[in-house]
Amino acid sequence: MTKFTDHLWEQALPIYEKIKQHPFNQELKEGTLPLEKFKYYIYQDSLYLADFARALAMTGTKAGNSHELLDFLEFAQNAILVERALHLGYFKEYEIEFDSGKGLGCFAYTNYLLATSAFESYEVSVAALLPCFWIYKKVGDYIYADQTTPNPYQNWINAYAGEDFARSVQKALDICDQLAASASEQTRNKMTEAYIKATEMEYLFWEGAYRLAISC
Ligand SMILES: Cc1ncc(C[n+]2csc(CCO)c2C)c(N)n1
């Protein structure tokens, strides 16, 4: 039987293909991404993760049982820990001291996730949060399998190729499938819409980093 998440994957496949081919990810894979772009991305990602953790925790409060509440609180905790590791590691290593604030790509994505987790149903919030896990898993596996070594961005590439991360992604997928199985068609449509929107935002986040900001 096809799962709801199979349907989601198919719906957003063209965006995923664009994400894979994006120069940021191609150059990251080849190790040729200019350091300035990587530094800007890491800085934006640290801002992203702080709000993403809030959106995860808020979504957890809507869960129908304490197992899923705990799952979301653990996801939120991990996002904060990743953010701290970024600060302790990359911020120090590269002397990152940006003070430009959130770029519009990051701003749009975090505000979308915060608004969705605050005002939409549990089902729709879960679907909106899913690309963060799943797209990173897919892009991470793609880059890991085909990277040029040695690669200056090896640590970052490894972070999304590990077993622990794979387990988190599977948990998020299973929760989404379970919710969709007992949701109305109208809710499933809203879930699909949220999933596609968040996938588009993942694309914009990389685009913003590659251009060192998207601006008017
Ligand atoms: C823009 C952007 N999107 C997704 C991730 C990946 N990610 C960040 S935290 C987390 C799960 C925490 O439990 C995952 C999968 C990222 N780093 N930056």
Report on this model:
This protein is mainly alpha-helical and 216 residues long. It has one domain: Heme Oxygenase, Chain A. Helices cover 79% and strands 0% of the residues. It has ten helices and no strands. The protein has helices at residues 4-11, 13-21, 23-30, 35-60, 66-93, 104-119, 122-145, 154-159, 163-181, 185-210. Helix 4 runs antiparallel to helix 5 (66-93), helix 4 (35-60) packs parallel to helix 6 (104-119) and helix 7 runs antiparallel to helix 9. The radius of gyration is 17 Å and the shape is globular. The termini are far apart. The mean pLDDT is 94. The ligand Cc1ncc(C[n+]2csc(CCO)c2C)c(N)n1 binds at residues 45, 48-49, 52, 75, 78-79, 82, 132-133, 136, 168, 202, 205.
Write the layout of secondary structure elements.
Elements: H1 4-11, H2 13-21, H3 23-30, H4 35-60, H5 66-93, H6 104-119, H7 122-145, H8 154-159, H9 163-181, H10 185-210
Helix pairs in contact: 2-10, 4-5, 4-6, 4-7, 4-10, 6-7, 6-10, 7-9, 7-10
The structure holds the ligand Cc1ncc(C[n+]2csc(CCO)c2C)c(N)n1.
Ligand VIB binds at residues 45, 48-49, 52, 75, 78-79, 82, 132-133, 136, 168, 202, 205.
